[in-house]
Amino acid sequence: MYQFSYAEILEDAPEIGRERERAAFDRAIDLMKIAQRSDASRADRETAVSFLQNLWVVLIDDLRNAENALPETLRADLVSIGLWSMREAGEVLRTPEHSLAALIEVNTSIRDGLR
Predict the structure, then answer these.
(1) Is the pLDDT of residue 96 over 80?
(2) What is the pLDDT of residues 68-84, one digit of tens each?
(3) How far apart are CA 71 and CA 38, in angstroms?
(4) Which phi and psi (to 5°) does residue 51 adopt?
(5) What does each C-alpha distance from 8 to 12, 20, 62, 69, 98 come to in angstroms?
(6) For residue 4, how far is the Cα from the chain centroid?
(7) DSSP class of 70
(8) Which terminus of the chain has a lower count of CB atoms within 10 Å, N or C?
């Protein structure tokens, strides 16, 4: 079975790729908002963190690819944001009272930038 690279998909239909990225960020943000509620369970927080970290793993892998068409400085900035998001998400699990507000705000800004 032939597997398409992420770059090939974006090359053929960049608007579809960006829409999928926005949808993934929407899902991550929705999960974090659920996990931020006062009645959220540890499982809610784990689900939100896992989804966000997995999303950034995929994005960082693509951003580090030399074939990624984004400017190098933008790619580096996004990788830094992704690594911060992953570390901050880990802190959310280690410290139950740790707020997800910063993660929600930063990832919402990234999502909004995909428009």
Answers:
(1) yes
(2) 888 999 999 999 999 99
(3) 41
(4) -60, -45
(5) 6, 14, 12, 11, 39
(6) 21
(7) S
(8) N
Q: Quote the pLDDT of residue 75.
A: 94
Q: Find the length of the chain.
A: 115
Instruction: Please give the backbone phi and psi of residue 38, each rounded to the nearest 5 degrees, phi first.
Output: -65, -25
What's this model's pTM, rounded to 2 decimal places?
Answer: 0.84
pLDDT tops 60 at residue 99: yes
If we measure between CA atoms, which residue out of 70, 75, 100 comes closest to residue 85?
100
39-78 burial by CB neighbour count: b if 16+ within 10 A, else e? ebeeebbebbbebbbebbeebbebbeeeebeeeeeebeeb
pLDDT category, 2, cuts 50, 70, 90? very low
Q: Which element (helix H / strand E) includes 97? A: none
Contacts (Cβ under 8 Å, ≥6 apart) of 93: 45, 46, 49
The Cα 64–Cα 106 span in angstroms is 20
Q: What are the domain boundaries of the chain?
A: 15-113
Tokens of 104: 């929600």
